[in-house]
Design a protein that fits this description.
There is one protein chain. By secondary structure, the protein is mainly α. Among the domains are: about 130-165 and about 180-265, no CATH class; about 270-310, no CATH class. The protein contains 12 helices and 4 strands. The chain has helices at about 5-10, 25-35, 60-80, 130-140, 150-155, 185-215, 220-235, 240-265, 270-280, 290-300, 305, 335-380; strands spanning about 10, 20, 315-320, 330. Strands 1-2 form a two-stranded antiparallel sheet. It has a two-stranded antiparallel ribbon with strand order 3-4. Helix 6 (about 185-215) runs antiparallel to helix 8.
Length: about 375
């Protein structure tokens, strides 16, 4: 057979990638030669040119490759969706040797530790609406602030027993010496307690009336509801009058307290004209004497150093002289020689009285002993 026929009859082998001959002769010859010749032991087979050594297949390589691709895809996905909880990409179930870690982006909240502030040290800022209403009730920055009284309103809220100051037991009445300054305060608190409880009853009755009216009314709409609520809770209603009486008592009692505190300071002012001027100054929502009204008074008197009293612990002043070489002279504020003389005279009188009393007691003891001796001798 010619070379052309050999070339045409050769076809590639699908498994080995080699070309094989279709002729039976070539195949039989090659098979017989391969079966007849066996390589000797301990001798490596020759490597033909163009052939490579056979490599054993390891399934773990595919597993490792899939894991690397999984981690790469996860890192890329986590960078693109930063801050958003995303799903973990799926992986091959056959790759059992390497398992990726499960990452949970949710954090456990066990609370935050904080410190508390002592109550009363930090005062909260007043509500502007309530502050404006308070200035209107107390008449701050107005000369009429002293006219806010409460005793007539308080009489309507006092009731016996309970809602009035507690009386003293008749058996202990002789121990009640001096004025009880807390009795009037207790009387006010008792009346306010009755006012608050009365207001609660009025509120409950008014709400029940509104509920009953809305249930049985056939003309229930926004206009009729507005008129009904205004009649129950508006000005002139029972609950409005009770609120007004309660606030009158509170504002009047506070006016009394403010007046007592102002008088305690004014009693220390020695100048009568200055005392009268300060008394005419109304209180403000921050001070007992309004700073806005006091500023012109201080300016007209020449400043605070002129009319303010010098503290008692300052006994003498140092006035620097014109010559700097000389020491400042000490000038006393007042001459207290007369006070010293009066003090010494009173001390002498008290010591003399004490000595006289001591001599009288001694004389009485001696006379008692003499009388006792005479009485004893008469019995004998």
């Amino acid at each position: 057979m010619s070379s052309k026929d050999d070339g045409k009859g050769a076809e590639p082998d699908p498994q080995n990638g080699k070309r094989c001959s279709l002729s039976s002769e070539s195949s039989d010859g090659s098979s017989s030669s391969s079966e007849g010749e066996t390589p000797p032991p301990n001798k490596r087979p020759r490597k033909t040119r163009g052939e490579f050594p056979q490599v054993m297949y390891d399934p773990r390589v595919d597993t490792l490759t899939s894991q690397v691709s999984y981690i790469s895809n996860y890192l890329i996905q986590s960078q693109t969706t930063d801050g958003v909880d995303g799903e973990v990409p799926s992986r091959d179930e056959d790759s059992s040797s390497l398992v990726p870690p499960r990452i949970n982006k949710r954090t456990i909240d066990i609370g935050e530790i904080s410190t508390e502030i002592k109550e009363g040290t930090v005062v909260q800022t007043a509500n502007p609406v309530n502050l404006k209403a308070l200035e209107k009730l107390q008449k701050f920055n107005s000369p009429a602030w002293q006219a806010v009284r409460y005793k007539n309103s308080l009489k309507t809220m006092l009731a016996k027993p309970g809602f009035v100051e507690l009386g003293i037991n008749e058996e202990l009445m002789h121990f009640n010496k001096g004025k009880d300054y807390l009795a009037s305060t207790e009387n006010v608190l008792a009346g306010l307690s009755n006012a608050v409880l009365t207001n609660r009853c009025i509120l409950k009755r008014s709400l029940q009336e509104l509920a009953d009216w809305s249930t049985n009314s056939q003309e229930l709409n926004s206009e009729t509801l507005y008129e009904k609520v205004s009649s129950i809770f508006g000005s002139g209603s029972e609950i409005y009058k009770n609120y007004e009486t309660t606030l009158q008592i509170i504002a009047g009692k506070r006016t009394e307290c403010i007046e007592i505190r102002r008088n305690r300071i004014l009693n220390e002012v020695t100048n009568p004209n200055l005392k009268a001027s300060l008394k005419n100054l109304p209180p403000s929502n921050e001070h007992l004497f309004s700073r806005e009204a006091m500023a012109p008074l201080i300016q007209s008197l020449g400043g605070t150093q002129v009319w303010l009293n010098t503290p008692n612990y300052i006994k003498e002043k140092k006035i620097p002289s014109a010559n700097t070489n000389k020491q400042p002279e000490k000038v006393k504020e007042y001459d207290n020689s007369s006070d010293v003389k009066q003090r010494t005279q009173s001390e002498n009188q008290s010591s003399q009285t004490h000595n006289n009393n001591k001599h009288d007691r001694k004389h009485k003891k001696q006379s008692y002993r003499q009388n006792k001796t005479i009485h004893f001798n008469k019995k004998k």
